[in-house]
Amino acid sequence: MRNLMVRSYVDLQRWLSSGVDAIEAWQDNFGLFDRHSSLQISDEAFAAVFETFRRRLEDNYPFFHPAYAGQMLKPPHPAAVVGYLTAMLINPNNHALDGGPATARMEKEVVAQLAQMFGFTAHLGHLTTSGTIANLEALYVARELHPDRGIGYSAEAHYTHGRMCRVLGVPGTPVEVDSAGRIDLDALDGLLARGQIGTVVATAGTTGLGAVDPVHDVLAIARGHGVRVHVDAAYGGFFTLLAGLPERAGLDPAPWRAIARCDSVVVDPHKHGLQPYGCGAVLFGDPDVGRLYLHESPYTYFTSDEMHLGEISLECSRAGAAAAAAWLTFQLLPLTADGLGRVLAAGRRAALGLADLVEASGRLDLYQRPELDIVSYFPVTSPRSLTAIDLASARMLTEGMADQRMPVFLSTLDVQADGFARRHPDVRADRDHARILRSVLMKPEAEGYVSELHTRIEQLASGLASGPRS
Ligand SMILES: Cc1ncc(COP(=O)(O)O)c(C=O)c1O
């Protein structure tokens, strides 16, 4: 199979041109008019600029290729591309049914599918432009419901929580983590017992390590103190499709099933939902929180009495094309274990496979076992110290990318010395933090590439950056 995903998974050119045809046919319904010369561009002018544009885009990392085993980046599924570009020719704005009735309805359907995936029996929710904005909305509702209390989140939660607490003027309290990077339950209980926290954030898949906070335990503790629970599943949310599966990729269902009983959840279709950037989502279990968004808008809502998406979100203009892309994708790859779940399962098996190879290696050490599809590891160095590991990890990152013949793209993760010592007490802590290596294996193609990837990483660790390939 050609390695070009866009060519191999659907006939992109065929469906893109069908999209253009469909919109042109729809436009024909509205009668002829003269196009304005001010927008006209000749083919020659386009060709010249496009050539520059094409070359400039080459200055990029190959996110589509399994040798890109770095950060949380991959291209959208071609179905999402077709959905996005086709709808974008209309350019609907999903803030209101008046801005784009078709895509606003698609958004409601997509949000209902996400709610069903998490097992919500009732919901209010919408898409957002990102996980950051989706979390901001959840924290905004947290503040409105408990204006006199703060928000707690694990020390390894995404930095957005601390930052958005500052934006909202709410005290934010980081809670220490256990030796696997999950929120420490005793510390959480102690914090909540003081009565100053109104909402706690559980992270289902931390950004650094993919650690899953025990949402079920967090929920039990929080409810005991009358505290709300928000789940940041921006990265990990779609892994709920693997909860309880009787196969290697299967996950302990307890944290995932508990999400249905939490107050809100954020999930990013632009991470594991095969979507292009510009697609996060926030869902609330109590539709009544919609009242907290009430605002006057004399210039937006006029064609229907139905609740408009802009009436239940902090953002105004939002790409209807994002909803169209997600709708089309989830029709073809539904949010089930047999649909999108197969994509996540392959990445998770790849992560487990790479972790096994790293564990068996004399040149690499596993930082911790992957809980989802993120593998964290570091080179074996002499001396076995944080300084040596930090330098060797940075060297491997740079040399991997610089290899002319067979580049490999990793990422680094800066970890604290105390977290390192809890996992690897034999490593000398001669500094207070160090970079290790991190590979997010979020493409299903990673599964067939594990052995090659491992070989390349071993070569980098041994200093044979451009040495012979086995
Ligand atoms: C757990 C978590 N929350 C929030 C975010 C922020 O999401 P976004 O980058 O879409 O704004 C991320 C991004 O990686 C994340 O991993």
Describe what this molecule looks like in 3D.
- The C terminus is likely disordered.
- The protein has 16 helices and 11 strands.
- 40% of the residues lie in helices and 13% in strands.
- A hairpin with a 5-residue loop joins strand 8 and strand 9.
- It is an alpha/beta fold and 470 residues long.
- Pyridoxal-5'-phosphate binds next to helix 6.
Query: Helical residue percent?
Result: 25-40%
Mean pLDDT: 95
Amino-to-carboxy terminus distance: 22 Å
Which structural category do the helix and sheet elements fall into?
A: alpha/beta
As a whole number of angstroms, the C-alpha radius of gyration is: 24 Å
Strand order, main sheet: write it out: 1-7-6-5-4-2-3
What's the tally of helices? 16
Unreliable sequence segments? 465-470
How big a fraction of the residues is strand? 5-15%
Give the topology string: H per helix, E per strand: HHHHHEHEHEHEHEHEHEHHEEHEHEH
Number of strands: 11
Q: Specify the biggest β-sheet.
A: 7 strands, mixed
List cofactors, ions and other ligands. Answer: pyridoxal-5'-phosphate
Q: Which outline best applies?
A: globular
Task: Write a concise synopsis of the structure shown.
The protein has helices at residues 5-8, 12-27, 43-57, 78-88, 101-118, 131-145, 160-168, 185-193, 215-224, 253-258, 269-272, 320-332, 340-359, 386-402, 417-423, 450-461; strands at residues 124-128, 150-154, 172-175, 197-203, 228-233, 264-267, 280-284, 364-368, 374-379, 411-416, 433-440. The chain is 40% helix and 13% strand.
